[in-house]
Amino acid sequence: MKILPKPLATVPRYISVPKLRAEKAERLQAAYEKLKRDGTIDAIVRRWER
Questions:
Q1: What is the pTM of this model?
Q2: Is residue 28 within 8 Å of 15, Cβ to Cβ?
Q3: Residue 15 contacts by C-beta under 8 Å, 6 or more apart in sequence?
Q4: pLDDT per position in the chain (50 positions), as tens?
Q5: Can you tell me the distance from the alpha carbon of 50 to that of 46, in angstroms, rounded to the nearest whole number?
Q6: Cβ density class 1-30: b for 16+ within 10 Å, e for less
């Protein structure tokens, strides 16, 4: 496998959750916001950019 030096494109990704699982969607959103706020998301992205 070969990893290219930079991505061909950067595109947003989305997750859909059924309306009947609103509680799980809220928990997922809260977890994402925490990871973004504490720098975990940025650290993951930087690791893949190498």
A1: 0.64
A2: yes
A3: 28
A4: 777 777 778 888 888 889 999 999 999 999 999 999 999 999 988 887 76
A5: 7
A6: eeeeeeeeeeeeeeeeeeeeeeeeeeeeee
